[in-house]
Amino acid sequence: MEKSDTRSLYLLSGFLVVIYAMPFVVGVMNDNVIYDLQWLADLTTVAMSGLMQGGVYAMFAVGLTLIFGVMWVINVAHGEFVVLGAYLTYVVFNAPQFLGYGAYIDPLLAMFITLPVAFCLGYIVQKVLLNAVIGGPELTPLLITFGLGISMINIIEWIFSTDYHTIPYYPDAFVITENIRLGKNKVISFLIAFVITFSVFFFLKFHRLGKAIRATSQNAEVAMVCGINIQRVYLITFGLAAALAVAGGTLVSIQFGFNPETGLTYTVIAFAIIVLGGRGHYVGAFIAALMLGVLENLVSFMVPNGTALVEMAAYGTMIFVLLIRPRGLLGPKID
Q1: Could you give phi then psi for residue 68, rounded to 5 degrees?
Q2: Do residues 118 and 63 touch, judged by C-beta distance below 8 A?
Q3: Rounded to two decimals, what is the model's pTM?
Q4: Per residue in 125-153, is it b (16+ CB within 10 Å) or e — as a string?
Q5: How far, in Å, CA of 150 to CA of 95, rounded?
Q6: Is 245 exposed, middle or buried (0-12, 13-18, 19+ CB in 10 A)?
Q7: Which of 99-113, 172-186, 198-212, 306-320 has the largest mean confidence?
């Protein structure tokens, strides 16, 4: 490891120590840190909830990592695909009510409908909008996805209005100990996100098509010479990334309220994750997502009015990691 690379890794480690210490420092200054069993139990609950939340973040962030790693496209509409997943789930969840039946469809079962729809939508977006500009100026696909995101926001607002929606799902909690409880919707979301994320990981690692995707991400020209249809790889990659984002939207929708404009938040979170984990690095994105989920929950727990500063934690992490170590934790060296 080169000295400059080692130095940047130490700087990044120091930066992470500082940002994780800051919520505790602010908490001490505002008397929010109380060294008793109840406070420690609350802190444990917050940290575990952060890991659960980070698992969901990881699932939709790795989709953005795939797009960037394979096609070098900065998809600024990724958060809008997450919100689209939330609204598709909302529609399927309420479908019996719309039809006059007094019942609801389990939002997790909705994924059997929403994920194929999302894959097809991503396939079409890649084929119609992006295939022609891959390999050209990097600004062109960025502007295309920016316009796509704005269009998606306006279409969703036109159909559903700007009101916030929620999907009630297992509002009670698992009792870990007398003082530690975790919301069932968080635990279920994490488990599903974990299964989906690592299913995709093993698909990329061992399946022939997954190996073709990885080969294209490493060197598209060599992959094409070896007989890989890279245009087909691009189509499948964007479809898979869209499906991961929509699945993330489903899992987000059973935990938080959402409206058409919440996509920006998830776009920022996804970018912060791939910057911290390493652009194009799947495992790095998963680790970074868990770290960011814990950080957000610590800020919300320790800092007065911390909920309003949660987004700033993601912005700040992204900016300083780019300044200190642009390749992130596990990303390849940047020439």
Answers
A1: -70, -40
A2: no
A3: 0.91
A4: bbeeebeebbeeeeeebbebbeebbeebb
A5: 27
A6: buried
A7: 198-212
